[in-house]
Amino acid sequence: MNKAYNYIVFFVGLAVFTATFAVTNLQSQTIYGQELVGSEKSFISPENSLVVKTPQKEAAKRIKVVITAYSSCPYETDSTPFITANGSEVKEGIVANNLLPFGTEIRIPELYGNKVFVVEDRMNARKGYYHVDIWFPSKEQAIKFGSFRTYIEVLES
Question: What is the Cα–Cα distance from 72 to 57, expressed in whole angstroms?
Fold first, then answer.
């Protein structure tokens, strides 16, 4: 029994070492807390140290835009500042834009790497079509963000 137990411990230890070695030796790039491996994004779950991989969507097109920020203040929105024009509640990762349909996924690579945002809100018509507003939980964060001229990547649906 003791010999069998030693074999089990040895093989479990070897498996853990091999998995750890494979994960730490992947040629990868870390952007905003996410490890990018090839065309997949992966991360290590702190609870169980498993590597989870999800395929990344490819960019269908790039559009030059102005990026600004907004928060859920009634004078920045309408009478329902916590509900988007699409009818969902505001949350991190929501953007407002007048050009793209609701549900469109975009990336802002120069500012956020591979983080994906979803168009769920609209802007005042005077902002036009080539303007994206990122939602922030507070007015202070939105002001601190400022304004940028960059491009977005519209992801394949």
Answer: 30
